[in-house]
Design brief:
147 residues, alpha/beta, TIM Barrel, 5-stranded parallel beta sheet
């Protein structure tokens, strides 16, 4: 994977499904609204391609806007990006995780995610295994590249 701006290789790791993930990503926790958009656009300019968010962060819309604006401007393509999001424990269970995933996808404005994870297993709820199984099912439907 290379960055168009600096043409230097971006170091990657190979996941167990053989997909590559950039080793360095931008965590977006606590970034909101215009600040999120500005930081993400600047990160793209300097070569970042991996962006991490979560339902809990409440910034998926801003991140999606920044990424989609960068795509529309020709600064990056969707294929060059690696976007991660996560489901919080209040949306564990088959129906809730499906809804949370679709909400994340809609807010980001994407057709698929590169990586979707259980943010916090929360064993007290007893649904984290079922939640992961549903995430894996969604992966099988082509909406998630890696889990």
């Amino acid at each position: 994977m290379t960055s168009e701006n600096n043409k230097a290789p971006v170091p990657t790791l190979t996941l167990n499904d053989e997909r590559e993930i950039p080793q360095i990503g931008l965590g977006t926790y606590k970034l909101r609204d215009d600040e999120c958009i500005k930081v993400v656009r600047e990160a793209i300019e300097v070569g970042y391609r991996h962006f991490d968010t979560a339902t809990l962060y409440k910034n998926e819309e801003a991140l999606g806007k920044a990424l989609n604006d960068a795509i529309a401007a020709g600064d990056v393509t969707r294929d060059e990006l690696f976007v991660t999001s996560k489901v919080w424990h209040d949306h564990h269970g088959v129906d809730k995780v499906r809804e949370a995933f679709q909400t994340s996808l809609d807010k980001l404005g994407f057709d698929y995610l590169d990586l979707y994870m259980v943010h916090w297993p929360w064993p007290q709820g007893g649904l984290y295994v079922e939640t992961f199984a549903e995430i894996a099912r969604l992966q099988g439907m082509g909406q998630i590249a890696s889990v």
